[in-house]
Fold this sequence. Notes:
Blueprint: H1 14-24, H2 27-62, E1 68-74, E2 80-86, H3 110-118, H4 125-131, E3 134-137, H5 144-147, E4 162-165, H6 167-171, H7 175-178, H8 185-206, H9 210-225
Parallel strand pairs: 3-4
Antiparallel strand pairs: 1-2
Helix pairs in contact: 2-4
Amino acid sequence: MKKWENLPGDLRVDEVRKYYEILQKHKGGLFAKRVFDVVTAGILVVILSPVLLVLSILIKVDSKGPVMFRQVRITTYGKRFRIFKFRTMVNNADKIGTQVTTKGDARITRMGKILRGCRLDELPQLFNILIGDMTFVGTRPEVEKYVAHYTNEMRATLLLPAGVTSRASIEYKDEDRLLESAENADEVYIEQVLPEKMKYNLKAIEQFSFWGDIKTMFATVAAVIK
């Protein structure tokens, strides 16, 4: 982690300091977390390469557009990065609708429904983990539009890399259902869903432990299977 005085100005606030000091006490756990990320992601990329290839072909056959969905998200210290995801919507879907997905969203392709149901669309994020922009367990990366609405306390989640999964992801795995009947999905997400998810994310920082992350990974697998 960077020294406090080297953090971006919007992170050097009292509401964030509490979480910063907690993480400073877990330098060993954070190092183990990064080593685990690199080793595990590398092994999974090799093992799953045939699966990634088959899914890429199926996506290309199912609908027009690129195999990968690349979108700018926010990670550690407010850094912008491009997330890797299998495309599950029609091409340029983010330009013809809201940036959150609702149940029954007409933009989702046939193959996309299958990928989302099993969370297989997240597999390419193994490459984001290897690069260092993401980690297995951490706050899901949001687009700039939503990060702009973070409170000072919420910005504490930017002390760590964005994650593929988290306790909030498990609790809100059916997030699209919550937004299904919303007249303005973006507004409901920003004012109601995001603050509740952040309670889980901030608590995860308060209770951070390397083994706690491992438990969250297993809990995610169980939630997907269920």
